[in-house]
Amino acid sequence: MTHTAIDDGERVRAGSELAAFSRALYERGWMPGTAGNLSVRLPGGTALITASGRDKGDMTAEDMVVVRADTGEEAAPGPLRASAETTIHSAIYRTTDAGAVIHVHSPYATAVACRTGHRTHLNSLRIERFELLKGLGLDDPTRTEVPVFPNWPDVPRIAADVAGHLAATPHAPPALLITDHGITTWGRDLAQARNRLECLESICQLLLMAGPELPAEKERLNS
Ligand SMILES: CSC[C@@H](O)[C@@H](O)C(=O)COP(=O)(O)O
Ligand SMILES: [Zn+2]
């Protein structure tokens, strides 16, 4: 099958699933305005992604665009434009075996991204000890380093940073932050990507609620 030969039934089934997940995330307040985008990998080297600039709480299967999974290029001319952040999804599809990618502007993860990110350099957020790390499917569920990328105005530049980091970091967690912007997670399907997103959003909430450490706590943690 070539990348343009998408079975219509498959496209509609995947599009309906994207629309349902998008609505649910919107209703949680994680896709304010028209923020956020979701995609799934399809057979034949393609992916289906939410159209750009749409209300993410009110999408249907017809509001999705077929793109090449490895480049983000639109597979066929049509009235809708693929998400402005499609190249970030493609960077993930190219360098991992992800079957689905979710990007949202959820408040706690975005706040942590704002506080830990750097305007021009890749940074990382070290997370240790939280039980919820077990929900990320890590090789070592006791600790991880979530990369925090600069929010370049040129999205393909963010995508190039992401692809470079993931290619060089085989045990990277299935998640990334973009400073002053939001969070992206991925998994074998939308449900797994959403579960991982929920774990990280909750960890970020706990980090913000728990810190900064009190001196007595520091002593206890270091003993
Ligand atoms: C509401 S502005 C947010 C956008 O700039 C972008 O970050 C975003 O998440 C949605 O872009 P989109 O092109 O609709 O997929
Ligand atoms: Zn965004």
Main β-sheet description: 8 strands, mixed
**Oligomeric nature of the chains:** single chain
What's the CATH H-level superfamily name? Class II aldolase/adducin N-terminal domain
- Give the N-terminus to C-terminus distance in angstroms: 59 Å
Task: Explain what the structure shows.
Helix content is 37%, strand content 20%. It is of the alpha+beta class and 223 residues long. The protein has a single domain (8-212), classed as 3-Layer(aba) Sandwich (L-fuculose-1-phosphate Aldolase), CATH 3.40.225.10. The chain has an eight-stranded mixed β-sheet with strand order 3-2-1-4-8-7-6-5, sandwiched between helices. Strand 7 (175-178) and strand 8 form a beta hairpin. The chain is globular, with a radius of gyration of 18 Å. Bound molecules: 5-S-methyl-1-O-phosphono-5-thio-D-ribulose and zinc ion. The site of 5-S-methyl-1-O-phosphono-5-thio-D-ribulose (MRU) has 12 residues, from loops.
Features:
about 220 residues; alpha+beta; L-fuculose-1-phosphate Aldolase; eight-stranded mixed beta sheet; 6 helices; 8 strands; about 35% helix; about 20% strand; binds 5-S-methyl-1-O-phosphono-5-thio-D-ribulose; binds zinc ion; Aldolase_II/adducin_N; zinc; EC 4.2.1.109; lyase; amino-acid biosynthesis
Task: Outline the fold blueprint.
Elements: H1 8-27, E1 37-42, E2 46-50, E3 64-68, H2 86-95, E4 100-104, H3 107-116, E5 123-128, E6 143-149, H4 155-168, E7 175-178, E8 182-187, H5 190-210, H6 215-222
Parallel strand pairs: 6-7
Antiparallel strand pairs: 1-2, 1-4, 2-3, 4-8, 5-6, 7-8
The structure holds 5-S-methyl-1-O-phosphono-5-thio-D-ribulose (MRU) and zinc ion.
